[in-house]
């Protein structure tokens, strides 16, 4: 089952651009948010868009979030509409779940270098990497 909270958090800042998909200026602006993130968001939106377009309440929820991506009420309405879409179409849910997992995996890659007078480090959800620790003073 897909986590619609994670999905809405992922899509909400990109919805203004996704709604203008194909517009060169919008695509260039969105790429500044991260090319990989943008490509994953587009792939998810290509799956969702036909279902959203077919349902006026889902269209309205998407428009509301695009206009106010931080509005908790708008986000809640979008989450509800997404749940309904996924309940009606389990294949869509499965496809979007896979794409969202890929998007999350690509966002969590990177290096973190910590220097200076640091005596402790806390980390969360580390996989496929290495941690070296020690007091080099």
UniProtKB/TrEMBL annotation:
It comes from the Bacteria. This is Uncharacterized protein. It comes from Brasilonema octagenarum UFV-OR1.
